[in-house]
């Protein structure tokens, strides 16, 4: 059996002008994860999405692992466009400064943002407004499934593969493997830790895939690294 380790990127820069980059915490998470994996895994191949947070996480992890694997880019592992999904719910937030100002007026901006994103995601996933979106929920689901299938086909049997991607992609793959409803999938996504590892084992001969572990982030547990457990 081969194994694909789906690694969620480290913490991105929430609330900053450029979200798609790791925060200082995210950079530290990548280093700690790489150190934890250094004596556990010897990857045969590495894939990642094309987003900057994917690249930075991969660089940090592989650097700490002393791995010389070449990173192969597959845009199929890119996250959905959460900014577009929010704007389709609340068009006035095409103005990011307005959204930031409105969130700042709340008692807890992060919680207010999470509530709004959940509402926006539910609208996107409902299928009732597909004409509004550049990428529908079913299209995203198919993209994630195809990306993993292509990775396995490219690598062949009994390989150890690292994939650096995002929480939405990972939970979408888990939805298919576990037979989850859309509602359960959305709830699962909000529990996914930054720089956590989800393992999928596969048979190249039969094409079967099975979820072996989910959202593993034990490398951040304990007094020294507990501050690195983040979810956004």
CATH topology of the largest domain: Rossmann fold
Order of helices and strands: EHEHEHHHHEHHEE
What general form does the structure show?
globular
Task: State the strand order across the main sheet.
Answer: 3-2-4-1-5-6
The share of residues in helices is 40-55%
Whole-number average pLDDT?
94
Supply the CATH class of the largest domain.
Alpha Beta
Please give the count of helices. 8
In the CATH hierarchy, what is the superfamily of the largest domain?
Phosphoglycerate mutase-like
CATH architecture of the largest domain: 3-Layer(aba) Sandwich
How would you briefly describe this protein structure?
The chain is α/β, with parallel strands linked by helices. It has helices at 24-37, 52-65, 82-89, 96-104, 109-125, 137-155, 167-178, 182-189; strands spanning 2-8, 45-48, 71-73, 160-165, 197-202, 209-216. The protein folds into 2 domains: 2-79 and 135-228, Rossmann fold; 81-134, no CATH class.
Question: Would you give an account of this structure?
Answer:
By secondary structure, the chain is α/β, with parallel strands linked by helices. It folds into 2 domains: 2-79 and 135-228, Rossmann fold (3-Layer(aba) Sandwich); 81-134, no CATH class. Helix content is 44%, strand content 15%. It contains 8 helices and 6 strands. It has helices at residues 24-37, 52-65, 82-89, 96-104, 109-125, 137-155, 167-178, 182-189; strands spanning 2-8, 45-48, 71-73, 160-165, 197-202, 209-216. It has a 6-stranded mixed sheet. Strand 5 and strand 6 form a beta hairpin. Helix 1 (24-37) runs parallel beside helix 2 (52-65) and helix 3 packs across helix 5 (109-125). The mean pLDDT is 94.
């Amino acid at each position: 059996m081969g194994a694909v380790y789906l690694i969620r990127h480290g913490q991105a820069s929430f609330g900053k002008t450029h979200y798609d980059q790791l925060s200082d915490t995210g950079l530290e998470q990548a280093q700690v994860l790489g150190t934890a994996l250094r004596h556990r895994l010897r990857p045969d191949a590495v894939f990642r999405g094309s987003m900057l947070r994917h690249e930075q996480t991969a660089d940090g992890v592989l650097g700490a692992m002393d791995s010389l694997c070449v990173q192969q880019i597959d845009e199929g592992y890119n996250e959905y466009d959460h900014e577009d999904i929010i704007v389709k719910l609340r068009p006035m937030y095409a103005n990011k400064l307005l959204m930031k100002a409105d969130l700042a007026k709340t008692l807890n901006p992060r919680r207010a943002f999470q509530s709004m994103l959940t509402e926006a995601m539910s609208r996107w996933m409902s299928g009732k407004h597909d004409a509004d979106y550049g990428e529908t929920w079913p299209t995203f689901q198919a993209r994630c499934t195809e990306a993993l299938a292509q990775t396995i086909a490219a690598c062949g049997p009994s390989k150890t593969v690292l994939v650096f991607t995002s929480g939405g992609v990972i939970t979408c793959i888990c939805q298919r493997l576990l037979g989850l409803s859309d509602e359960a999938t959305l709830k699962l996504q909000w529990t996914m830790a930054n720089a956590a590892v989800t393992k999928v084992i596969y048979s190249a001969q039969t094409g079967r895939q099975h979820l072996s572990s989910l959202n593993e982030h034990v490398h951040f547990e304990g007094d020294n690294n507990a501050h690195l457990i983040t979810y956004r």
